[in-house]
Write a structure and sequence with these properties.
The protein is mainly alpha-helical and about 60 residues long. The protein has a domain at about 25-65. It has helices spanning about 15-20, 25-40, 50-65; strands at about 1-5, 10. It has a two-stranded antiparallel sheet. A hairpin with a 4-residue loop joins strand 1 (about 1-5) and strand 2. Helix 2 packs antiparallel against helix 3.
């Protein structure tokens, strides 16, 4: 089992992960970014201001999906 972001996203194998990344669509890419931000927040990576900025940017990007 392969996983990224502390297990928030899991794949059956490295090959499945590689295939997913190579064929990623816009919705999945935004979801991966969302999960990476969540992972960073859970691990104290971002300040409150940084988290808010990332949230606003992600919200803006999702308007065009």
């Amino acid at each position: 089992m392969e996983n990224i972001f502390g297990g928030l996203i899991e794949f059956k194998s490295k090959k499945e992960f590689d295939s997913f990344i190579e064929e990623i669509d816009k919705d999945s890419a935004l979801r991966i970014i969302e999960i990476s931000i969540l992972y960073g927040q859970q691990n104290g990576l971002y300040s409150l201001e940084e988290s808010h900025s990332l949230y606003k940017c992600l919200t803006k990007l999702k308007e065009n999906v």
